[in-house]
Amino acid sequence: MAKLDLGAVQETLLLPLAARAYDAESKYPILNDQKALELFKQLVPDRKAFRRNLLKVGIVSLTERGWIMDRAVKDFLKRNPNGKVLNIGAGLETSFYRLGQPSVPWFDLDLPDSLALRKRLLPNKFNNVKYIGKSMFDESWMDDIGNISNGLMITVPGVFPYFDEKQVQLFFNTFAPKLKGAEIIFDVLSNASRLFVQRKINQAGMNKATLDWGIMNPRHIEQWNQHIQFVKAYIYLQHPSFNAIGNPIYNFISWNSKFFKSAQIFHFKFV
What we know:
By secondary structure, this protein is of the alpha/beta class.
């Protein structure tokens, strides 16, 4: 088992990895992320014990996040075949592998401790991939990426909810004017959903990581800066595999998610 030496927020990277691993072992997988399963087996030998900390709804939600973001990146690369992809909060995210190891310039950015674990478990063997060990607030990562005239897609899975709104706003107000033409996609929680997810994180033994930001209306973000343009919002738990479970409780959760917008993925463009 690989030793983990991570900060409070960084250690939560195990949750989405676990969800994708359990999904890969399920009868009807959403992502069938075999790379995630391979990594999770290295990190957590007792997968059944860890499984108790994840409800079915949590597994589907975290896996569906990857499915939605993968589709957005595919669409972006169809529109911008010479574009670049930046994954903020890369952790042990395996989207590069799920997408068939695309030949475009690909950048995985995370804090040094998370990136050290990534380098150990997912050593970079690709000429078009670059690992960046920096904070997302460190403006110098723009120099690492270079020219974005052919397009840039920024994916930010499972990061922003751990910051307060002022910090998220600082990120957007800093980078939106400087990365015109770039697109960004990220997940958000409503305040009610944030409290529920926080409890599940604590039950997984991760008591120091706190979810501080909740939001439902993407237009609120658009008002932060004239360079931020709303593109689309995706609602969680609408994937066919979730609705096919047939359990009335899960049907209610799906309806609740759609009606109350408890968990969403927002897509914006910097103009």
